[in-house]
Amino acid sequence: MHSKLLAGVELLSPSPAFYALPYHHNHPFSPKILCCTNNSSSDHKFKFNFVGDRKWKFNDIGTSRVQESVNHWLSKTQNFFNEVTSPLVKTVNDKRISVNNDTQDMEDTFMAEQTVDSQTPNGDLSVAAILSIEQFSRMNGLTGKKMQKIFKAIGPESVHSDARSLVEYCCFRFLSKDSSLLHPCLKEPAFQRLIFVTMLAWERPYRSRGDSQAKVSEKHSLQLKRRLVGEEAFVRIAPAVAGIADWTTAHNLFKALAGNDQGISFTSWSTYIGELLKVHEGRKSYQFKDSAQLHNERILCIASGGKHPVLKWENNMAWPGKLILTDRALYFEAVGLMGKRNASRLDLTVEGSLVKRTRVGPLGFDLLDSAVSVTSGPQLDTWVLEFVDWGGEMRRDVWYACISEVIALYKFIREFGPEEGDQSVYNVYGAQKGKARAISYATNAVRRLQALQYAQKLLEEPTKLVQFSYLQNAPYGDIVLQTLAVNCWAGPLVTKVTDQEYQSRGSPKSTNEATESSSHVFDIDGSVYLRKWMKSPSWDSSASLAFWKNSLSKRGIVFSKNLVVADMNLIEKAAVTCRDKYQVAEKTQATIDAAMIEGIPSNIDLFKELVFPLTVLVNNFEKLRRWEDPLLTASSLALAYTLIFRLWIFMGSATLCCTLKFLPVHVQ
């Protein structure tokens, strides 16, 4: 059975109209019998309309030909129902089919169901683009041709012929129907393949130009094992699927999944999705077992010992135990000689909480670089936790990134969210759930990091894969955090406000009375983020004012805050600038690191600058030695001999004095 992505398709009743085209030898053209229902009649009887020469007789109609045509169209209708009602989920035997066979099945199925017009002014649509458009159209309850017409009707005229925007429209329209933390369709292998094909379609929406033979062979080029998804396509499509990636760190996630390749392979993609699903399912089981002891907190990470124990150092003593990280705190349950002790808790939501890498060792000798130091506020306890890992420091670095993300999360909430008990959140629809949204972003980031760890696809610095921790030190990170705050807490106003309060930064409706510093901020979908929530000093920076002044230009189709066709959402716009600035900073730091190795210059240009005075001295000495300037050489020799003579006299006098001092004195 072919794997078909037809979940969520609205089963539209097929038209009962059909056509019979009988053939008769005695007439110059064949009459056509149109059989259709009369919608205006209550009894819905069939009526026959005869089109053709009015002189022919009813007996001239070939009854066998009519019956044959009727049977043919009834067979087509039955096949249509069978295909539409075919299940999305494969059977066990179907899952054993190879990826190549699945891809070929999708191609064959698609070629029989194509409705979208593949010829556009910019070129012919590629196989991946047609497949993505058709499948998402059916999942939206429409056909590819109908979706194409709707897109041209509501989309900007500048993108009517843009195949990439059409792919985005079909994909984003379906994804906008779900608001869960992890898209439920990701559990289906067919949907995973469809997202991968959609990224290929976005990257290459048109066929390659060439002769007709090349276009014919294009049909057989969609082999997923041979295709790689580029960075731009991944960063554009993957964050749109709930739970797969976020807009801020998608480029770093791409680097982790691609590794040394030029793009992401289907094997790497499917492995990552599989591990991510396992992490989500595993956290559900943990939540069920331990939720009674953890104050209704979400469990993020658990280290329970075994081959890789966790040690808590206190007074140069290491205690093994079980460590649990939730979305609010750390829990450690030590294992002593008499069994387990009561679990101790370290709150990570307190202002001033800090985590840093450290070294530990017996008797105060810091020999092992595999620990972290976690402090809950400036005046509270500090935990030193060692993560034993015989394979290196990566386990410690992953835990460091996870703990750092939780601390950075609550720092973000304090700086960019409303105060606790602020009643203004009830003036904006959905603002009460803003804190929960921010927490869900952090928990999803931690789960993605764990999935990459299990898939062995981590970067050297795991903190680049968790957005709140990454943005703390990234250039332009404050602006990205502002867009995240607007994404979490902004919403439609539910109470009446004055015109001056309703003005947005850079909005064409702003008046002279409403200055930029006293206005609210709007998201791309019209949601409002109140001015009184802007406590962070970063809102008054020049970079912030410039960004929000130019942020409300709408050029595409807006489905939600995160899904915009033919344009970027606010987080994506800020993240692109942050990424570019971060890459420049990394290149600069790499240049400095290459020039210095443990403080010793290794860069040839820098070395020449440092030894330049010595080089000048050596060159001048060579001039003196060669008597290029006799007067200068003679003067230098006279000075040198004078210094030597004076030094010889001084040394001789000192030697004579010492000799006389130690001579024996005879007393008469």
Describe this structure in words.
This protein has 668 residues and is an alpha+beta fold. Among the domains are: 117-277, no CATH class; 294-387, PH-domain like; 415-495 and 519-592, no CATH class. The chain contains 20 helices and 22 strands. Strands 8, 9, 10, 11, 12, 13, 14, 15 and 16 form a 9-stranded antiparallel β-sheet that branches. The chain has a 3-stranded antiparallel β-sheet with strand order 1-2-3. Strand 11 and strand 12 (339-340) form a beta hairpin.
**What is the makeup of the main sheet?**
9 strands, antiparallel
What is the approximate shape?
extended
* Alpha-carbon distance between the two ends: 133 Å
Total beta strands: 22
Mean pLDDT: 78
Helix content: 40-55%
Secondary structure category: alpha+beta
Number of helices: 20
Q: Flag low-confidence runs.
A: 1-59, 80-112, 211-221, 498-517
Beta-strand content:
5-15%
What is the gyration radius calculated from CA atoms?
37 Å
SSE blueprint:
Elements: E1 18-20, E2 32-37, E3 46-51, H1 63-84, H2 92-95, H3 99-113, E4 119-120, E5 123-124, H4 127-139, H5 144-154, H6 163-175, H7 189-203, H8 212-217, E6 228-229, H9 231-237, H10 250-258, E7 264-265, H11 266-290, E8 299-303, E9 310-314, E10 317-326, E11 329-336, E12 339-340, E13 344-347, E14 354-360, E15 368-375, E16 382-387, H12 394-416, H13 434-454, H14 467-473, H15 477-489, E17 521-522, E18 528-529, H16 542-549, E19 557-558, E20 564-565, H17 570-595, E21 596-597, E22 600-601, H18 604-610, H19 612-625, H20 630-661
Antiparallel strand pairs: 1-2, 2-3, 4-5, 6-7, 8-10, 9-10, 9-16, 10-11, 11-12, 11-13, 14-15, 15-16, 17-18, 19-20, 21-22
